[in-house]
Recover the amino acids of this structure.
């Protein structure tokens, strides 16, 4: 009975606001982890040049393969949007439920701002990479790493990798060794 009282006292001291913040952090962490699982393959991200290019098994492109690629890119964009929407919703609830000027309030606003900045960077990268002839394209920026998935008929050469890495660096400041380029 004394242990139960101690547990109740602990949870009472932590407070509702801190539980909301903890759940927001866990949700954002889960979103980052899922993006990492889906878009980053450390075995293939060795370094510069051709080593950054990953062939996702697409060698011959016929009509069926192109339709599958389009489905992949659509699904990836939808998944990314849903994950971000959930994270923003949690952060907005933290902003609503916390006192303005508190550390939790500022942290939640910073998280929302960071998501917005990454969304803008990814959109810029996708537009610029598509303008270079790699269409469609999905970019995922996560901290100091970026994964770029492109649809391209031929094997990516070092000039293609350099063009894509340059775009990523100019938009985000992420170094080429932290960029993974995947050909789908």
């Amino acid at each position: 009975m004394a242990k139960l009282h101690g547990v109740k006292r602990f949870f009472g001291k932590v407070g509702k606001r801190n539980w909301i913040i903890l759940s927001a952090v866990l949700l954002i962490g889960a979103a980052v982890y899922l993006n990492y699982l889906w878009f980053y393959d450390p075995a293939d991200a060795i370094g510069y040049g051709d080593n950054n290019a990953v062939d996702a098994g697409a060698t011959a492109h016929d009509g069926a393969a192109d339709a599958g690629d389009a489905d992949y890119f659509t699904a990836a964009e939808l998944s990314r949007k849903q994950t971000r929407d959930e994270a923003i919703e949690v952060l907005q609830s933290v902003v609503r439920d916390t006192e303005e000027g508190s550390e939790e309030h500022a942290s939640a606003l910073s998280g929302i701002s960071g998501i917005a900045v990454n969304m803008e960077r990814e959109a810029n990268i996708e537009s610029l990479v598509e303008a270079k002839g790699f269409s469609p394209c999905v970019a995922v920026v996560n901290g100091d790493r970026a994964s770029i998935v492109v649809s391209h008929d031929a094997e990516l050469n070092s000039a293609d990798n350099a063009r894509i890495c340059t775009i990523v660096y100019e938009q985000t400041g992420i170094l080429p060794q932290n960029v993974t380029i995947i050909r789908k």
Summary: The longest helix spans residues 63-97. The domain at 2-183 is CATH 1.10.287.4300 (Helix Hairpins).
